[in-house]
Amino acid sequence: MSRRELAFAFGLLAVFAPGLAVLARAWSAVDYQSHGFLVPIVAAVAARHAAHAGPPARPDVRGAALLVAALAVYGVGLLAGSATLVGLALCGAAAGAVWQLRGVAWLRRLGFALGYLLFGVPLPPALVAALVVPLLAWVTTGSVVVLGALGTPVWREGNVIVLPGGESLFVAEACSGLTSLVTLLPIAVLIAWLTPLTTARRIALVAGVVPVAMTANLLRVVATVLGANAFGVHAVTDEPLHSLLGLSVYVVSCLALLAIARALATPAPTRAAVRRPRPASGP
Fold this sequence. Notes:
- The protein is 69% helix and 3% strand.
- The protein is mainly alpha-helical.
- The protein folds into two domains: 120 residues, no CATH class; 140 residues, no CATH class.
């Protein structure tokens, strides 16, 4: 980076320092946002990799328009206390700075790194509320169906699963699948970027996050209910077993994504043409 670019970067960091504090508080507030602390690190590594032997810089004043718009959104986000707007403004400012200082070619070259920053944008509470309700209903209903097929008769009362003995388990927001969806998506995108796949297969890998996350959380609830039915509710809901079960589900989900990536990266076997020997001609 040139001195001008370094000065520009430090200037943006100074301007966005209050916004970064807002984002840090949002990332710390809930589990499904905690991956935000790692997003800038991954983006920086990806940007450094892409910047190696890049094209010559051709400053473009059109980037200033995006930068000004991002700063305007940033001001609104700070005044409104919206971490979502602050995060979007930071992503826009980063893209605008690259565009202004180095041009369109560099904007494309750093496209993955800049786009990856979007995973650090906190979800708006209204969207979270709209997603959690149907996800909880699906996981709870699916768990009851699976448990019935396994010979454990339980019934559902909203987000509560009532055991045969009368005890009940509340299916909390953490078991809805939202946490897994939001945290597994950036992992899947990173795996897709690192794996030599076609565009269609990369899309398939990222789309695989939905069934993997939802199935893993359904199995988590089923395992919790089976354990509660056998050993009591407190045995499976008290720490550290409850957290260990959640962590194991997350690890299994990551391994499932790696397995899908490996399967998609494996070339399809080709059938070699087998030539049959011709019968020897007669004398």
